[in-house]
Design a protein that fits this description.
Elements (H helix, E strand, L loop, with lengths): L5 H6 L7 E4 L3 E5 L7 E7 L14 H17 L6 E4 L3 H4 L8 E5 L9
Antiparallel strand pairs: 1-2, 2-3, 3-5, 4-5
The structure holds adenosine monophosphate and zinc ion.
The site of adenosine monophosphate has 12 residues, from loops.
Length: 114
Amino acid sequence: MSQDCLFCRIAAGEIPSDKVFENERIFAFRDINPVAPVHILVIPKEHIESIAHVEDDHQALLGEIMTVIRDLAHEENLEKGYRVVANISTHGGQTVPHLHFHLIGGRSLQWPPG
Ligand code: AMP
Ligand code: ZN
């Protein structure tokens, strides 16, 4: 883990968060600045900067993250639908350089986001 990475420290429990899921590899918590009634961040505990930094041996981990997102959406009663977003680097609007998937739902969402 990276001591100067905010999300590494959240996943390690060093910085408090509103946790909704945790296993050995994955951590999920509510976004501190939600854009919708449900706004959860799902992250690998391993420090991976973004999708651009994913390696071939991360494939199982990324697949597991998708099933965690599916299960959290079900638990949050998002049967009407939801959005999953990963921002990458500067033009992608990434502000925290630790891979995270936004799970956003609970209201009707517009597309494109702008
Ligand atoms: P991104 O812009 O894709 O890098 O998203 C980073 C997200 O992290 C933003 O939606 C922030 O609101 C959220 N965030 C930043 N700090 C915290 C924190 N301490 N706890 C929960 N969410 C946070
Ligand atoms: Zn990190």
